[in-house]
Amino acid sequence: MNKDSCSSLDSLLADVRACRACAPHLPLGPRPIVRAGADARILIVGQAPGARVHASGIPWDDASGDRLRNWLGIDAATFHDESRFAIIPMGFCYPGRGNGGDKPPRRECAQLWLDSLLGKLPDIQLTLLIGQYAQRHFLGASQGFAD
Ligand code: SF4
């Protein structure tokens, strides 16, 4: 990966992290949690951060992350190595609680950012779609997002 590609991705990630597009709908405010290095080979697309991940700012910093790392057979340091793993959820900010659990990911992230981010990750060879929103977006009809 050349230096221009890295700086281009870094610039885009800076824009993503400054995003406030759906701030009025986010009970704890915007805190986009996305990680990616331009050389990453594995892409993990999950749902949206929970409250714990919102607080820490570290993706998959919860019990589901422990299960995922156990399933992958890797430790936390490897999982959080951006040069190996890009971690891009369908919704980047914690969406708040709804009936029976966290609300669905905000649809704005995919509309505003997802394709641009994926376009700057040319070395991805394996994509893990975790949860119904990622699977619907990538494999089937896009539906079920928060309004
Ligand atoms: S949820 Fe996505 S679109 Fe909304 S403020 Fe966060 S990054 Fe921006």
Automatic annotation (TrEMBL):
A Pfam family found in this protein is UDG
Q: Name all Uracil-DNA glycosylase-like domain ranges.
A: 33-146
Give the InterPro entries listed for this entry.
Answer: HI_0220.2, Uracil-DNA_glycosylase-like, Uracil-DNA_glycosylase-like_sf
Say which domain of life the source belongs to: Bacteria
In its UniProt entry, what is this protein called?
Uracil DNA glycosylase superfamily protein
Which organism's genome codes for this protein?
A: Paraburkholderia terricola
